[in-house]
Amino acid sequence: MDVVIAGGGMVGLTLGRLLRARGVEPVIIERMPEGAYVPRGYMLGFQGYEPLKEIGVLDEVWPAGREIAPQGTSAVAVCVDVGTVLHSLARDLPVMYGHSMTEMIFGPDGRVTGVVVEGPDGEVTIPSDLVVACDGVRSRTRDMAGMEAVFDRLPEGELSWMSGTPSETSFSMAYMRDGGHIGHLSWPEGSGGWRSCRRVGAEEALAPGLDAIKEMWARLLPDSRLGVEGLESIEQVRYSEPELLTTREWWRPGIVLIGDSAHFFGPETGISSGIGLGDAHALSEAIAQNRGDADAACRSYVIWRAPVVRPYEAMDPGRQRILVAGREPEPGPGEAWPPSD
After folding, report:
1. DSSP annotation of 32
2. 154 pLDDT exceeds 70?
3. Digit-coded pLDDT (tens) for 50-64
4. Domain range for residue 74?
5. DSSP tally for the chain: helices H, then strands E
6. Is the model's pTM score more than 0.70?
7. 228, 261: one domain
8. What is the mean pLDDT of the chain?
9. Where do the H-state alpha helices sit in 179-236?
10. Is residue 106 situated within a structural domain?
11. Are residues 264 and 236 in the same domain?
């Protein structure tokens, strides 16, 4: 089977290694230069243990991270620098870095039969039996195929930060009186935090200043104190307005969506990446069991994964807040952000 993987991030690289282990040599397309990534902590959830263990990456990256909620000899997740994982996945794996998909090729019956890719040496046409979209929430591959994506805005904004100082604990999260939440992650090289806040725009959300943000965070979530004290500039703090993503269909003849191209969860679930790695594991096995029939592989994939993923989509805490938007209780003392006058 000729497989083209659109996106050489965490999920795309994992799928590439899993397919190679099953005797399938995919073409992986990544628009970023080799080695480029946004430095940050990465929470590898238990859903991703098996695929990374199979390709020999889990035992390599685990010692470089911090365990989250260890229970005896196991932990529900490990927080590690994202570059450590990406470097391990990419090693010795052929990837077309610096290339972007510019066109999708359709057969007379509407089936996707290939892609046109542009890179430093011009355009190249790559025929395929199956294109796998692994290029994220705003997937161009999904859009080119005409597959609908449903974005649901959360009723709140999000304030987040990242510093180069590890916190005392690897993870903590707390809920506030109005149903909002505040949390933090820490890995050996740094820390990051997030909290829900009023949807007011970046200017108003950041207006109280860095010192006020640091005081608020350490007070509401004491476990994050060391990490948040490591903030040196307001540039390390970001305001955003998160959205949830669902797609009603995951495949059409010749193309399949996995990972963040197919679904994206709210920050409280902490499972988007782990679920994406599980997608890659299931798809690689479906392809191995249906080598001559991409459609059969995709049908098997959907049958296996829907019972796993769809309940998470339905029960996402953020989605529950969407349903009751406009009826939220008032925040508790000192919890509102930006602070009330």
Report:
1. S
2. yes
3. 999 999 999 999 999
4. 3-150+244-317
5. 11, 20
6. yes
7. no
8. 93
9. 202-206, 210-220, 225-229
10. yes
11. no
